[in-house]
Amino acid sequence: MADYKKVLGCLVGAAAGDAMGAATEIRTRKQSEEYFGGYVKDFFEPPADTFARGSKAGQITDDFSVAYVTAQHIAKNGGKVTEQVAKEALLEWASIDEWFSRFAGPTTRARVAEIQAEEAGAETPKPDFVPVNPNSQATNGAGMKSAPIALFSNGNVDRAIEDAVIACSLTHPNKIALAGAAAIAAATAAALNDGANLFDVVQAGIYGARRGEELGLGYHEVAGCSIEKKIKLAVYIGLTAENLDKAIDEINDVIGAGLMAAEAIPAVFGLMVASRGDTIEGICAGVNIGNDTDTVATMVGGILGALNGIDSMPEHYLEYLEEQNNIELAKLAEDICALA
């Protein structure tokens, strides 16, 4: 049986990162510190100028909610990831107005419209602008949901990569986005194994990025930098920075922490290394780096939560996140473990 504490740790860590980062998203690090009075290490109500405005403290956004619904559908399918399961999960998530209408990104929103039209036998809606290459889809929207998907791999890195590519190619069918998704999934799978350490996680992530890019070429090749090479650079910064505070600034300045996969995914690995694999320090580093903080913190929390388990986080996180979002993280973890 899979390690329940690791599985639950992944789910709670990812949810916590999303909910905490929702309050600091879009801002620079300095702007967040000015608004919240310092380094953010708790759940706050998102300000009126953020995407999550109107949410209460502790509520999740698209980053974890889509992963949660996807994981539920995979569990119902006996742990097997298929394109049909991914499609059904996406449509269910899109039917939940609280999440979809408020948070869905342009790539996901356009794909949902296409699928809904296909299901209804109607003509697929045409976007206002169709790029020559789908470079605009090379975002972190695939990586953000990949940690929970990897929980069905039972620690098998290659299976986690394949599952992530199948699930994420529905909305992000290109080599860069899928390289990012595979890197997160591979790192999470490695974290699930007994005796795993941070080096194992980082090594798996680098391998996942390389393998994900190879598989992604079967969909679309898009212009952009190498996720694998940028992970290595981010890890170097995390290793050599004088302290976590300086590492956060350096990773933001050199790697970035924005919407594109080539920024957010490498930043995740740099922050995990800079925080020396500590779950809460890593999540908070993502929350405070600036820009797409909820997505970065979601991925950091999912991986380190799987590595260190639920006991690496405050006891109240589980109950608090379940109550604030009307979700059942403990039950989902039990369902996943029962399949292993």
Characterization of this structure:
With 340 residues, the chain is mainly alpha-helical. It has one domain: ADP-ribosylation/Crystallin J1 (ADP-ribosylglycohydrolase fold), CATH 1.10.4080.10. It contains 17 helices and no strands. α1 packs parallel to α14, α3 packs parallel to α17 (329-339) and α9 (175-192) packs parallel to α15. The longest helix has 19 residues, at 198-216. The N and C termini lie close together (5 Å).
Q: What labels describe this entry?
A:
globular; mainly alpha; 63% helix; 0% strand; 340 residues; ADP-ribosylglycohydrolase fold
Can you tell me the number of structural domains? 1
Query: Could you tell me the mean pLDDT?
Result: 93
Q: Which percent band covers the strand fraction?
A: under 5%
Structural class: mainly alpha
Order of helices and strands: HHHHHHHHHHHHHHHHH
SS elements, strand count: 0
Look at the structure and give the CATH class. Mainly Alpha
Fourth-level CATH superfamily: ADP-ribosylation/Crystallin J1
In short:
The chain has a single domain, classed as ADP-ribosylation/Crystallin J1 (ADP-ribosylglycohydrolase fold).
Q: Which helices and strands appear, and what pairs or packs with what?
A:
Layout: H1 4-21, H2 29-36, H3 62-76, H4 83-94, H5 97-103, H6 106-120, H7 146-150, H8 157-168, H9 175-192, H10 198-216, H11 227-240, H12 244-254, H13 261-274, H14 279-288, H15 293-308, H16 316-325, H17 329-339
Helix pairs in contact: 1-3, 1-14, 1-15, 1-17, 3-4, 3-17, 4-6, 8-9, 8-10, 9-10, 9-13, 9-15, 10-11, 11-12, 11-13, 12-13, 13-14, 13-15, 14-15
